[in-house]
Design brief:
Distance between the termini: 24 Å
Radius of gyration: 21 Å
Mean pLDDT: 95
Number of helices: 9
Low-confidence stretches: none
Order of helices and strands: EHEEEHEEEEHEEEEHEHEHEEEHHEEH
Largest sheet: 8 strands, mixed
Helix content: 25-40%
Shape: elongated
Length: 367
Amino acid sequence: METCKVAVVGGGLAGLYTAQALNASGVDVILLEARERLGGRILTADETGLPAEDGFDLGPSWYWPLMQPAMATLVAELGLAAFGQNSEGAVVFERMSREKPQRYLPAALDQQSVRLAGGTAAAICALADKLPAERVRLGTTVTAMDLAEDGVRLTVKTGDESAEVLHAKLVVAALPPRLLEATLTFTPPQEPATAARWRNTPTWMAPHAKFFAIYDKPFWRTDGLSGTAQSMVGPLVEIHDATTASGKPALFGFLGVGADQRATLGEQVLKQACLAQLARLFGPEALEPRATLLKDWAADSLTATAADRAGGGHPVPGNPRWVSGPWESRLLLAASETSESEPGYLAGAVMAAKRAVAEIRSKMDRE
């Protein structure tokens, strides 16, 4: 049976930050990730939808340096380049289907949203470079945790579906609380109030879908448009310029169609409806993209549960005590949703990870 001091479950931003910070402190850590890639909800893809070092963010894409200094600090520490979201030009507003969309020039924004050159996955790659490859287990799903006298036994399944057991002194669960509650069996069970809190915490991005249309040139900019649009008609309700720092032109939008309806309509029907809408808003050139991408996070079983399909709000800060009872001394939660500030956001993931690292270091100092 393999052993380690700390097992980190989940290789998104929070889990990866936690693992590399502990490793840098000399802690024997293993990172377990169910996907065959790191990043979790952070997914930067090329125009074919495959993970890429310079592409389009199918998951989170923005942070706000003035409001979210934790993310700004991380970007600086990793030596990454950032650029402001394009906001030059008119915004388009579509109020109803029988009215022509309206254009207007917005007032200047104080809080500029910022993106990473290469995509948000640039932060994942930079953090992964700080963690030895032998400390990472991809394609490894944790299915159960059993509390032992001297730690936690984790049952894990690998790609060939064989079950193995890993023993850790401490476990950091860096996946959304709702997903944790739905997919893992705990022995002894979590206390009812704790399990209920996990189950009732919305997973950010889980109900949503993003559509991208990638073009040869940013025709909307030459037409005096910023690429930003809002619609009460749909299927896209909020649209933005998604052109990369390297100059690959694209528009993206969030779908306002619910998860069940998206599944019923199917990807091709949705893509055609999105392109028709972009043509209404930005002109006929929108009908001829190089490629289109549709990422439905509600259909991703490693992000969303059945409870996420109905939508739900943004996670809100609450009591910092996410684990109670006999598990309290062995298990820590570090997903973005558990952060006391900016839960659900990239900055929340960084802060939740820093809190977990500090707690583990404190435990080890006391020992």
